[in-house]
Amino acid sequence: MKKKLAATAIGAAMVLSMGTGVLAGANLQEIKAYLNGSITVKYNGSPVQLQDEQGAVVLPITYDGNTYLPVRSIAKTLNVAVNYDGATNTVLLGEQAEGVALAKDFKNSSYHTKDPNLTTYGGKDYKEVYFDNAKSSRSSSFMLYPKGKYQKLVLQVAATGNDIESFYVQDSKKDIKLKTTTIAIQDGLKTIEVDIAGVEELFVHADIKEDGGMFVPLTTSYFK
Hints:
- This protein is mainly β.
- The protein has two domains: about 5-95, no CATH class; about 100-224, Jelly Rolls, CATH 2.60.120.1060.
- Helix content is about 5%, strand content about 40%.
- The chain has two helices and 22 strands.
- Strand 8 (about 80-85) and strand 9 (about 90-95) form a beta hairpin.
- The longest helix has 8 residues, at about 70-80.
């Protein structure tokens, strides 16, 4: 189904909420505009309530015959990732041009390591990895926190010692599995892509057999 958004006004545009610190340094022109509570917004034929990041209702703005809709609310409705780069005053919608490595903010478990004896796979040192190399049969998992800023997760995973027959990535808050797969030793370093638009938290899980392991390079796995 094609994504479609209708507003009962002439001309729809989008604006992004910015903090006062950002506004102070922006190239702004003062205007006289109106909050317009009479406008109804529909998505695929159904009415939607525009909300900010905290869940508060926000209204369209009417100015000079055009209607402006808050970009974060519209992105959430269309299930498109949105972020703001304050350094360049740039609104980022959908996939970003450059990925953000998981190593940047990874804060999980004793299996997170920078030990050179554990970070090498296939002759390459990945510098920082999640490597569960315990010996018993077990579940292995970690959390990721995209916070709705990214469109896609690109995850690299390798099985060591034994195949991983059950692997999945789950939207933790909605309890929905976004990707389920298997990872065989012969796959080498397998690249797994997951659509994560609008997702706040991710649960990455694998069932590992005895003497098996899971190797995830955090420098080459990334959000985009």
